Amino acid sequence: MKTLVLPSTYEDIKSYLASTGAVYAAKLMEFVRPIEDTERDLTQMTTQLRGTSGRAVLLYGPPGTGKSTFIESLTWRTHVGVSDLQQIDCARMQQEQLLDELIRQLQMLAERVRGSGRVTAVAINYLEDLEGQDEGKVRAFFRSLNGLLRTSPLFIIWPVTDLEDARKMLDYASAVSGTVFFPGREILTFHGPAQTAFVSIAKNTIAVLNDGQTLEEFGLTEAGLEEIASRAVHPTPTLRSYLDAVVEQWRNQSGYLEDLQAKIPKPTEVWTIFAYPDAESVIGQFSRRSEQLEEVWTAFHSKLWEYIPNSQRAADWNPKRLQLAISGALRTRIMYMPTNAIVSTFAAYAQDKAKTLNLSTVGVPDRWAKQSSAQKHIKTSPLHRLLMGQQSPPGKRKSGPAARAAETAEKAFNEISKYASGTGNDRHINHALANVLRDVLPKDYVVESEKAHPWIPNITPDIRVDTPDNRLICVELCYTSAREPYVVADYVLKKLDRYMRQLEYYVGDVKAG
Fold this sequence. Notes:
Distance between the termini: 12 Å
Oligomer: single chain
Helix content: 40-55%
């Protein structure tokens, strides 16, 4: 049976179409549905701008509603009143200089369009909150943005997914000026296409992205698509969740994974873990926060794919191979480890700590060097919670004891990071973490450190956990203190490529196709 291509995210659609300009827009027009109520609101806003000044609007909607695809559609929905669309990718900016770099790029765009008499839309992508940014820098950013918009016809569309975070942004802006956002329309709620349109969108998307092939060629029917829509499990299902359900249905009935998985003796998961302060915010761009344990911390195909085209990685990865690495031949999760958990574990369990590092000199409390304290810290980590089948608390650790503990641990972690960069030193940290896991996990869990994978050749994970439900968890720990998002992508893709190369050698080439 043919392989179904049905991406559920805007980024994946772009990677599959692999085209730009008019050709790209023409293909999108074949399956992207207009969202007329939102278009009507935006048109009223652009009419007020008159091509001489600018404003901003926060486009609020849950993940998966289609905000990015809708913004892209403005390039051909000319009645909305924008002459051009520019997209700014904040995920590629360094966290410390993020707001400075963002205002610099906006100033460059403003210089280009000032005096043109035409409105240019600007999407600020992958900056859904300002958590962790210095308040002084945030105020300075909105002050500069206000001055810029007074004389430049920029229409800033800022996608956000959390209403509370959006309101905090408005509080910052209003403290500086009341003219950055449209008065009374600062937040525009986006619902995406109606559920009644899901079947039609799926049919058209399948036709366009699969070279005109019909549903029947993939063993699907229109009645089947309607049945999937009718059994949506979410109270307010999104288009993304629906398309994912269609792909899952196809996989279940096509035998797509059976041939591959039949050759795999035991399910293997690869969990990559980052522990530097604020890792939680950066990791949030790359993996899914979900109430479903099966999905939580699962890597985003679309986000990793951003770092593949136009790079040396393109020789190693295509969309299908990456998908197999994430949720096919392997299951990949990307998560953070509280910084204090790593520091306390090292202080309490690392056998060579006395010969190398004295963490008390960088502010680590003496009690953290007790194994009981390390066990307490590790039990709060997403790693331990997921191994035990427990949900992690929703939201970020924005304040309270957890945030203070992470702050206390920062200097010590920087020392541990330097230590880990020495040849072979990271194995001591790995052994320490394996030891604390042995102490806190039930006896029917088997924890090994620096031991070869039982059947994938030439793979030695930092830590391997064999679970009672017959899963094999390979934990790969990155001790870097570098906080740029590309560092996460680079580490994860390098690890996955090594796993996939050895897996392909073992079961046959799963890269082709």
